[in-house]
Amino acid sequence: MLIIKNIFIFSFYLCIVLAVNPPYGRLSVKNGQLTGSNGQAVQLRGVSLWFSQWLTQWYSPEAVKAIKCFYNGNVVRAAIGTCCSGYLENPNAAIKAATAVADAAIANGIYFLIDFHDVASEKCTSDAEFKKFTNSAIKFFKTILNKYKGSPNMLLELRNEPNPICPRSKLKEYYNAVLPVIRKLDPNVVTILGTPYQSTGPSAEVINNPVTGANLMYTLHFYTVTDTNHIQQQKQMVLNARSKGLGVFVTEYGDADVNLPAPLNPSSMKDFWKFMDQNKLSYAKWSLSNKDEVFSLVKPYCTPAQAMQEYCLSDSGKLLRDFMKTQNNGITGC
Q: What element of type H or E holds 79?
């Protein structure tokens, strides 16, 4: 019995040793601004992983270490896929991927964002399907929170990119069903809400009828599209939301047009980085993976173990690395 007790005590203290405090402590949202534990306005700058169900090997300590120490990032986004062999069909694998990233982030002293990565698969047209999807999300976040509730490293993203035909009223119904479950387990965790039309940003219908609650933010996904009017509209949505005290988190952005194939667009990307920093927005780059697409930071023939090798950097990876190393993201211990 004494041996068992000593093992328990050793394990408890080992967990404490392995856990590293994130740069700004426990986060909150004050008047639309992400805020650190001492009340200062803060920004998270980091990287999103690719869909968990297809490039699971990137849900690894090596990938998280690369985000912290190679890209100077203070947040990793775990894009836990829902459909197509994702959580809805293979929940154990999805939870395993999420916890691998969360544990690595905690060990490295950076933030982790657990994203229920639905890409317009649930259309909100069938009450039965809507209820099934909502209940699955509740079960998913309960599982995550039962393990990580109270963690200063954690943020949640309740729905990645809602289907364009899903009306705002159904999205709000979804959030009003999922949020109480989250708040019961962790009253203060910063929670990010996907926006209409595949999270193009907090439109007027969102701003004029927001979800009620504390420590909430709204998603905006940005890509350097050729339609400059669209980019200006997104910038204005941010300004409109902030004027109403609503927070915006760019949980996903890309440095090329979303309609592939497309070339890298460094000038447009630099302009939007400047805009995000001027408005103290937090953001995560899509994506740390070797997927053969322009947004990927790593070349297709490289593995997570090679993610910090110069010869494995894509053009997108070089652009991000050179930008991120100029930022003060509170990173230590590399």
A: strand 75-81
161 is catalytic: yes
Number of CB atoms found within 10 A of residue 289's CB: 26
Helix (H/G/I), strand (E/B), else coil: 334: coil
Per this entry, what is the length of the chain?
Answer: 334
Q: How far apart are CA 165 and CA 176, in angstroms?
A: 19
Residue 252 designated active-site:
yes
Residues whose CB falls within 8 Å of the CB of residue 131, separated by 6 or more in sequence, listed in order: none
Please identify which of the residues 161, 173, 205, 310 carries the catalytic annotation.
Answer: 161
CA 137/CA 59 separation, integer angstroms = 20
Query: Coil, strand or helix: which one is 195?
Result: coil
- Alpha-carbon distance of 251 to 291, in angstroms, equals 19
Residue 105 to residue 268: CA distance in whole angstroms: 30
How far does CA 25 lie from the centroid of its chain?
Answer: 17
Three-class secondary structure of residue 210 per DSSP: coil
Q: Which is catalytic among the residues 122, 157, 252, 293?
A: 252
Could you give the CA distance from residue 220 to residue 201 in angstroms, rounded to a whole number?
4
User: Which tens digits make up the pLDDT trace of 146-194?
Assistant: 999 999 999 999 999 999 999 999 999 999 999 999 999 999 999 999 9
Domains of the chain, first to last: 26-324 (3.20.20.80)
**8 A C-beta contact, residue 303 and residue 57:** yes
C-alpha distance across the termini of the chain, in Å: 40
* Residue 218 host element (H or E): strand 216-223
44-73 pLDDT tens trace: 999 999 999 999 999 999 999 999 999 999
